[in-house]
Structures are given as structure tokens and as C-alpha cells.
Design goal:
The complex is a heterodimer of chains A (491) and B (95). Chain A is 38% helix and 13% strand. In chain A, helix 5 runs parallel beside helix 6 and helix 10 crosses helix 12. The longest helix of chain A is centred in the C-terminal third of the chain and has 21 residues. Chain B is mostly helical and 95 residues long. Chain B has a two-stranded antiparallel ribbon with strand order 1-2. In chain B, strand 1 and strand 2 form a beta hairpin. In chain B, helix 1 crosses helix 2. The longest helix of chain B is centred in the first third of the chain and has 18 residues. Chain B is flat. Chain B starts with a helix and ends in a 7-residue tail after the last strand. The chains are: A alpha/beta (491), B mainly alpha (95).
Chain lengths: 491, 95
């Protein structure tokens, strides 16, 4: 690893300001790392070398004039779900073959306005449907972490697996990601990185390929809490082009860091101590409780009685919305077209060839639960359960400022370990999905390693739009856990 | 709740996804397992509970009813598999 790619966003930003190196040198260092690593890790599905160099040169001109913006010269990777003008954007699906957006997503446009540099597009589960990055049309991204003494390839989690792998392997300074049921926080936990899903409405969804519109949110994956705060500050904001985007000012998240968490009340939801929870995850959670206690926070036991129903309700709501959102892929306006005898056969053949097995499964479930006679029994029921889940959180937040839970039920697992059992795969999101169902912010922070030497994460859940306090608490955990060393290089 | 193969084919038709016999058979099993698993929601008493419509309470935003964008026909058809004179071309629909 080159010295430059070893720097956090905060450190690189300070060094660029002092002209210790140029933005172009920093970008070249990352392009070199990608060149050497991507064959093994498959984190990028497209590398935008020329664009990166052009952007970096423009950053150097601004820095020379003393006009550096918050992320001036910082090289980022972008999840393939984001539309980037004239650049590969296929949600890692075959059905979007050759699609080159004619416009830029609001979140990426915000990042470029803040001075960031685009290195390329990152691997992900097809249409963000998966927890291991194995449903990608481009093949799985590989976790830079391996169990001690083992050469077995492990998944980086998903759906933002390429984002997490690239950040963990130092193939970008930070990455954009998205989270519908845990797709930022689970891969962050499995790769020893920090990932935050902000409150629903905090980031614009405009120009991000839609999966489940009432649940999708953009957020960053980064190496440190401070880096994540810097990135979210640039990504967030009101956007007239997304009616669900919220028109409230974006606080200076980085400025909120470092404050004391003394006296903050942290809820421990007893229902998260699920049957069959591994002793290691239980011990990690207890350690997190001790760390926050030692920082002066007060620990309060709380109850979220409908927790166990969040995942099954999610697997009605998300597929229902997906079946509707993915109706647009019909071989007419963009992407893959496979001929048929008539127009219906053309639609059916294009979609049969274009979608992978998991995406088809979810479209079918969604179509079924929305079909005549079943709407009330499934979709309406799930949305009622969602109201109850939200009420659970509302009453907990009358007593506490934030909640602490494990981020995932396990560490990174082997490729293929769960692909034959959809429900086992879905259970990866058991601790994260409740947060999407209630629209709350949640952050995953590296908190240590399991017995095999693989990273584990803790999750903090906050009140709506209370990301500043989440970052502050997350930093208290990060300080206590100590710096996560980079994965041992084997690629 | 288990589904039969005829239902799988009906749903696939509604979803506009062509399925062969092998896929229909496999999907029958997979959908049955998933639908079975979500059945547990039946345990929850939801009588009188409002269904969630928006996680963040907000008033629907409105904008002035004016043209704010357009004249981008080139952009609109740029990614089309087949287009002609700014039209999307599809197989014949009317005999």
C-alpha cells in the first residue's frame, strides 16, 4: 500500500491544503492500487481513469488558488446504483447493459461540487438485492479480510459489497453506498469500515436506481467516523427533484465530533438478544455497553416488542415496491432487448434474460403480494406492522437518546455459504432492517474481531435527523475500540 | 401459504418474465418457503392500526405548474435499443 492511500480523508485533506502532495498524485496513487488489486478483489466494475485525472487536475488548480472545498481532491468510489453522466451505471444488472446516463444523481453532483474526484463505479448485488455481493452480474466482490491462517475467499457483505471492499482495501478514500435493509451497515461491519444510513429524506434519491422507494437511502462507507461525517455532510441536503427529500439544514457533522457523550442515555433493546445469538456477538455487544458506560453515558434497558416481525414485513414491502419500480426494464427505453414473437414476448424475454435469480424471485414475490385479492392480507398488513415498529422506536426514544445493538449476527462468511437458502441470507439484516422500516438513522462502527480474526461491528440507532449525536457516540466507540488496522494484504 | 405451479406461471405472466418448466418448478418451491415465512405476521394484532404511508411526517411538496425542463429528445432516446426520429421502436402491436 502506498503511503498516500494509507491516509484518511481528514488527513489527506489537511495534507493537500499544505501542498504536501497534489490531488493528481493522490489520485494516481489510488489508480495504481486499483490496477494491482482489482483482479483479485473485483471491487470496481468500471474505472474512470481519465475522468479522475481531469477532476484531480481541476482540484489542484483550486487548491493553488486557496479555494479548496470540503472534499477537494479526495478520490472516491461510487456504487454502480448511482447515475453518473456518461459513465457506467447498471446497478450491476445485465438488464441495463450499455446504459450510460445522460444526467448525474443529486448525491454524486453534491460530492463533485464539494471537490471530490471519481475513481470509478463499484460492484454491488444486482439492484441492491443481496447481502453478499454474490448476485452481481459482474461476479462477487471479495472481502480483503481473510480468517487467520486461511486462504478461503470471504464475501464483503452486501449489497454495497464493492464499496466496503474498496474502502477496506484502500482502493478509494471513501465510497458512496445505499441502504434499503442494511446494505450500508452490514458490509461495513463485515469489512471493518464505518457505514451510516442517514434518516429517510436526508439524502436525495434522485438519480439513484430505485429498489424500494420508501426504504432506500444513500450514505457513505469510510474508514473512520470522521471521514463518514465529512462525506455525509457533502452528500446530504434538500433536493426539489425528490419530493421525499427533507428541507432542513444539514448540520456540520464533523464539527459535532469530539463532544462528550457524558449523560447521554443509551437504550439496549432486549429483543435484539435473539435466539441462537453467538457468544461472540453477545460479548461484543456487552463490550460496547461497557465502553459507552466508561465514556459517561447512561445505559437503559428498553423494549422494542415488534422487532421479530420487521424482517418478514420487509420481505413484503421491499419486493412489492421493487416489482413496481423494476417494471420499467422492458427492453424499450434502455438496456437489454431480446426479441420475441410480439411485444409481450419481447418484454418477457428481455426480462427473463436480463434479471438474475434473486431479482426475479423478489419481483415474483412482490407481484404476488400485490395481485388481486392479496393486497390487504400482505402489503396492507405489512404496512400496519411497520407502523407498530415505528411506534416501538417512538416510545423508546422518549426514554433514551440512541440505541446500541450488534450490526450483524455473524462475521464475513465464505462465498457460496448462503446462496442456496434465501431466508438464511435474509437473516443477515435482522439487526439493521428495523431501522429502514422506521426511517431512522443507523451507523455501523468497527468494534473488534472474532476468534478467527475477522472484523465485527456495532450499530447505533438514532432519532430522526439526529445524525450529529450518532456520529459523536460512534466516535466514542471508535476511540474505545482503537484504530482498525488495514486488512493483511494477500492480493 | 404454498403456491402451485399454475400460480407461479400466472404471476410470471403478470410480472412479464418468461419462465421455463425448470424455473417454474424451482420458483414454486422458493416462493412457497418465503410466503410461508412471512405468514408469521398473522400473529400480530393490527386491528385499528393505520398502515404506514410515510416514515417522516411531512406535507406533500408542490411546485408551480410550469414547464421547467424539456426539449431533450436526443437525451431521452439516447439509450434506447432501437429508435428512429426520436421515437422508441417496438414490435408491431396492432394487426
Amino acid at each position: 500500500m502506498s503511503e498516500l492511500t494509507g491516509l484518511t480523508i481528514a488527513a489527506a485533506r489537511a495534507a493537500l491544503e499544505k501542498k504536501e502532495f497534489s490531488a493528481l498524485e493522490l489520485t494516481e496513487a489510488y489508480l495504481g492500487e486499483i490496477e494491482g488489486a482489482n483482479g483479485a478483489l473485483n471491487a470496481y466494475v468500471a474505472v474512470t481513469r481519465d475522468k479522475a485525472r481531469d477532476m484531480a487536475r481541476a482540484c489542484d488548480e483550486r487548491l493553488a488558488r486557496g479555494e479548496g472545498r470540503p472534499l477537494e481532491g479526495i478520490p472516491l468510489g461510487i456504487k454502480d446504483l448511482y447515475c453518473t453522466q456518461g459513465v457506467h451505471a447498471q446497478a450491476c444488472s445485465h438488464v441495463l447493459d450499455g446504459f450510460l446516463p445522460r444526467y448525474e444523481s443529486t448525491v454524486t453532483a453534491n460530492l463533485w461540487s464539494a471537490g471530490a474526484v471519481m475513481l470509478g463505479k463499484l460492484n454491488m448485488d444486482e439492484f441492491a438485492m443481496g447481502s453478499s455481493n454474490e448476485t452481481s452480474y459482474y461476479g462477487p466482490a471479495i472481502n480483503p479480510w481473510r480468517a487467520s491462517g486461511s486462504e478461503e475467499k470471504l464475501v464483503p457483505g452486501g449489497s454495497s459489497g464493492g464499496s466496503a471492499a474498496a474502502v477496506a482495501a484502500r482502493l478509494c478514500a471513501g465510497a458512496t453506498a445505499t441502504d434499503t435493509g442494511g446494505s450500508i451497515r452490514q458490509p461495513a461491519a463485515l469489512t471493518g469500515t464505518v457505514g451510516i444510513k442517514p434518516t429517510y429524506g436526508r439524502c436525495s434519491r434522485w438519480g439513484i436506481v430505485a429498489f424500494a422507494s420508501s426504504l432506500d437511502q444513500a450514505g457513505p462507507i469510510a474508514r473512520t467516523v470522521r471521514d463518514a461525517a465529512m462525506m455525509l455532510g457533502a452528500m446530504a441536503g434538500h433536493d426539489a427533484k425528490d419530493t421525499t427529500s427533507v428541507d432542513t439544514p444539514v448540520p456540520d457533522y464533523a464539527a459535532a465530533l469530539g463532544g462528550s457523550v457524558k449523560g447521554m442515555r443509551i437504550g439496549i433493546p432486549r429483543e435484539y438478544r435473539i435466539d441462537g445469538m453467538s457468544a461472540e456477538i453477545g460479548a461484543l455487544w456487552d463490550k460496547g455497553i461497557d465502553w459507552l458506560k466508561a465514556s459517561g453515558a447512561e445505559i437503559v434497558e428498553v423494549s422494542l416488542p415488534h422487532t421479530k416481525y420487521a424482517l418478514p414485513a420487509y420481505y413484503i414491502v421491499a419486493p412489492a415496491e421493487a416489482s413496481s419500480n423494476l417494471a420499467r426494464y422492458d427492453g424499450v427505453r434502455y438496456g437489454l432487448r431480446v426479441a420475441g414473437d410480439d411485444i409481450i414476448a419481447m418484454y418477457e424475454n428481455s426480462r427473463a434474460a436480463g434479471f438474475g435469480a434473486e431479482v426475479k424471485r423478489r419481483i415474483m414475490v412482490g407481484t404476488y403480494v400485490l395481485s388481486a385479492g392479496y393486497y390487504d392480507a400482505y402489503y396492507l398488513k405489512a404496512q400496519q406492522v411497520r407502523t407498530l415498529i415505528k411506534r416501538d422506536f417512538d416510545s423508546a426514544f422518549e426514554k433514551v437518546d440512541a440505541l446500541l445493538t450488534p450490526a450483524t449476527p455473524n462475521s464475513a462468511f465464505a462465498l457460496g455459504a448462503m446462496t442456496d437458502d434465501p431466508i438464511a441470507m435474509y437473516l443477515n439484516d435482522v439487526f439493521t432492517v428495523t431501522v429502514n422500516m422506521a426511517g431512522l438513522p443507523g451507523i455501523s462502527v468497527p468494534a473488534g474481531f472474532d476468534a478467527r480474526g475477522l472484523p465485527l461491528g456495532l450499530q447505533l440507532i438514532g432519532k430522526p435527523f439526529d445524525e450529529a449525536n450518532l456520529f459523536r457516540l460512534a466516535q466514542a466507540l471508535e476511540d474505545a475500540a482503537g484504530e482498525t488496522p488495514p486488512a493483511q494484504r494477500w492480493w | 401459504m404454498s403456491v402451485d405451479e399454475a400460480t407461479v406461471r400466472r404471476i410470471a405472466r403478470l410480472a412479464r418474465i418468461a419462465v421455463n418448466d425448470e424455473e417454474a418448478h424451482r420458483l414454486q418451491g422458493e416462493l412457497s418457503v418465503i410466503l410461508d415465512w412471512v405468514e408469521q405476521l398473522g400473529e400480530v394484532d393490527t386491528a385499528g392500526v393505520e398502515p404506514m404511508t410515510s416514515v417522516i411526517p411531512m406535507v406533500m411538496k408542490k411546485r408551480d405548474d410550469v414547464v421547467s425542463d424539456g426539449a431533450k429528445a436526443d437525451d431521452v432516446v439516447a439509450n434506447a435499443p432501437v429508435s428512429e426520429d426520436h421515437f422508441f421502436v417496438v414490435p408491431k402491436v396492432v394487426e
